[in-house]
Amino acid sequence: MKPPLFWSNPQNTPGWQALLLAPLSALYARATARRVAQSGYRARIPVICVGNINAGGTGKTPTTIALVQRLIARGYAPHVVSRGYGGKLEGPVRVDERKHRADDVGDEPLLSAAFTSTWVAKDRAAGVQAAEAAGANVVILDDGMQNPSVKKDMTLIVVDAWRGFGNGRVIPGGPLREPVAAGMARGDVLISIGDTRAQDRFSSDWAGSVSIPRALAQLVPLPTGMDWQGLRALAFAGIGHPEKFFQTLRELGVDLLRAEALKDHQPLSLALMKRLEVEALALNAQLVTTEKDAVRLPRAFRLKVVTLPVRLELADWAEIDGHLSRLGLD
Questions:
Q1: Which terminus in the chain has less CB density within 10 A, N or C?
Q2: 248 is in an annotated binding site
Q3: Is 99 annotated as a binding residue?
Q4: From CA 244, how far away is CA 64, in angstroms rounded?
Q5: What is the pLDDT of residue 1?
Q6: Would you list the domain boundaries of the chain?
Q7: pTM for the whole thing?
């Protein structure tokens, strides 16, 4: 479902729709507060949650991958545990890139599985226990901040710097799973993702609401040897904010002839891909997509579509490293 426009209003002018829905938002917030207050499984190893308080995509998976790489560089064996949104397997199951497809385990676990052992489990506690038994010495929960089934030793809250927390209201009156203050009270570091302009906007709108340390980050395209300058392209993306991907392509010099924004996690059916292929041929354009979408491509299209990989870069890891050290993950 496409978010309603009033969700993106400034917090001081939330819109009449948000005000009308305020009683329902209050009920949603109370339900979340009751849920997160429940007691969960205490693992024998550190558990780090990469979550958000916004509904939808904010950059959790790139953050998870960056954290995985940092821990591996320190000599640890992190395992990722995900609920596997969009996948049909209940789990716990260890993701195998050679055997599993996105409709089995979801697209995000397939991405993280390229970097480290990844588990899909609708029951997060069972997933963490499976990771422990398989030799993990630290677990990263990809999402799950509002899921109480596992106790977290550290929580990173991820936010899109440009969008911030929208109108500051809880679902259905706004884009939040819980109030900003409640989320901050359970977080350790806020990671805001965006360029300088987006970070300045977030500071202007939300700095007074952020009560925990903030780390600035940006998604940066990886060098692939691809000459993007002047490439005629038809791009498609089924991620949280497709327009960010399209803007990145433009900044790389791509001649973006058409940009098709799909729903987040939307299945890439053979019929859809054939339609996009016909349109690209008519425009003499190359099909281009994201890494997350690429894992959902039908096999027949995997060599026909160019992927733009991006990685999360933090301006300063000091705050996160400090929390890792307190967990013994030096």
A1: N
A2: no
A3: no
A4: 19
A5: 60
A6: 36-219+313-326, 232-308
A7: 0.91
